[in-house]
Design goal:
Helix content: 40-55%
Order of helices and strands: HHHEEEEHEEEEEEEEEEEHHH
Shape: elongated
Mean pLDDT: 86
Number of strands: 15
Low-confidence stretches: none
Strand content: 15-25%
Largest sheet: 6 strands, antiparallel
Distance between the termini: 24 Å
Radius of gyration: 41 Å
Structural class: alpha+beta
């Protein structure tokens, strides 16, 4: 076959250029440490690599969200731990103040510390996170959610919103709790009604009957008689000498015992049922004592502390006055226990949230490691193999260049 000089030059030039291109590609792959640099290198692998990188980016975002969530949760948990300690101290002070040995100066000193604890609790309720947002304001987190009024009460300006953070596919974790839930909607220690006591001053006994539980247990049967739906529990001696009990509603109608019976024997600790309501009263009432039950399902943390302060500021009494103080103290301590229970329960929830973020973080790390191995197998270069191929390509290029150089200089004139 005849090959013209032009064809000879074109074929050899193209051959050298192809081998030079192979060498250049190998140099680029080795310098980047990657087998696939563009989609044209391996279309299927390039598509898989792109999908894997998107998964890695999403997982990294989840990890960033977890770091953010952990920070927010830690601020709340630390704050509630301190709030719980404050309430333990409040209870200690109240119990310390319940002694006839305390004079006016002693009670004032205890009340002053309780005032300081009140202010501390208010400050904790207005805690901010690292971004300056109020932790317990719900969605209204740019202004202080709690404000003390001139009468010593506290109002809440936030809402019931609970901020959530995505920490995994389909997994959200709460990163806040509203101040309304934490501080303003604590369960009433006795149930659905608040008792107030009207004691017969003719009896000096300090120990009197106290309501320990009163709940609406049958909503279908419960029909309010008035607004408010108050009930009066009256105690009076029966002809038999036993203590009798009668319950009337806010309109004066007898609801316990069922008429025509006018009185039922009182037994400490027994359940008294009427109008879908069940109440338990303990200890010994005196003839002529009565208890009014007013609907109230919740108390707030600040009013509980304020009640404790007011109680400490009142003088020690004797007879019926001291009996009233002791009954009030019993409910104050019960409410303090409910505040502590609320804080403890939310802290338990926070602990569960931290376990979720921890488990999700570990899952993301394991998943990232797995898909990184897949990406590496598709994209990364086997350096030993690549360098060996590069050396072969370089030798091939050098051979092609040398052969072309020698052949192009050949001529029949050299042999004449």
């Amino acid at each position: 076959m005849r090959i013209s000089t032009n064809q000879f030059y074109n074929l050899n030039t193209q051959n050298i250029l192809n081998r030079q291109s192979d060498v250049n590609q190998s140099v680029l792959n080795i310098s980047e440490g990657k087998r696939v640099l563009t989609a044209s290198d391996d279309v299927v692998a390039a598509t898989s690599i792109l999908n894997i990188k998107q998964e890695i980016a999403l997982t990294e975002q989840y990890q960033s969200n977890i770091t953010f969530a952990d920070s927010r949760i830690a601020v709340e948990e630390t704050t509630l731990q301190t709030a719980e300690e404050v309430m333990f101290r409040v209870k200690d002070l109240v119990l310390q103040g319940n002694s006839v040995a305390n004079d006016d100066a002693s009670r004032k000193a205890i009340a002053d510390e309780l005032e300081a604890r009140f202010e501390e609790m208010l400050s904790l309720a207005n805690t901010r996170d690292e971004s300056g947002s109020y932790v317990f304001g719900g969605y209204q987190n740019q202004s202080a959610p709690f404000e003390e009024q001139s009468d010593g009460s506290v109002i809440y300006h936030g809402d019931r919103g609970q901020r959530m953070t995505n920490v995994g596919p389909g997994v959200q974790v709460p990163t806040s709790d509203s101040g309304e839930k934490l501080f303003m909607s604590v369960s009433n220690s006795v149930g659905d009604f608040r008792p107030s006591y009207q004691l017969n001053a003719a009896h000096d006994e300090v120990e009197r009957a106290i309501v320990t539980d009163v709940d609406i247990t049958d909503r279908a049967s419960y029909v309010p008689a008035g607004n408010p739906d108050d009930y009066t529990i009256g105690f009076a001696a029966m002809p038999s000498g036993e203590m009798g009990v009668t319950v009337t509603d806010s309109l004066g109608a007898q609801v316990y015992p069922t008429p025509p019976q006018t009185q039922a024997p009182y037994v400490s600790g027994d359940t008294i049922s009427f109008n879908g309501i069940e109440t338990v009263i303990k200890k010994a009432p005196q003839d002529g004592d009565s208890i009014t039950l007013t609907p109230q399902t919740q108390v707030d943390t600040f009013s509980v502390i304020r009640d404790a302060i007011d109680w400490l500021k009142s003088d020690n009494g004797v007879g019926v006055d001291e009996a009233s103080r002791q009954l009030e103290l019993g409910h104050i301590i019960g409410d303090i226990d409910e505040v502590q229970k609320r804080l403890s329960n939310v802290r338990a929830d926070i602990g569960a949230r931290m376990q979720v973020t921890e488990s999700q973080s570990e899952r993301h790390l394991d998943y990232t490691l797995t898909i990184e191995k897949s990406r590496s197998a598709l994209e990364d270069l086997d350096m030993v193999e690549a360098i060996s191929a590069f050396e072969r390509q370089k030798l091939s290029l050098q051979a092609s260049q040398s052969a072309f150089s020698q052949v192009q200089g050949m001529s029949l004139l050299n042999y004449l």
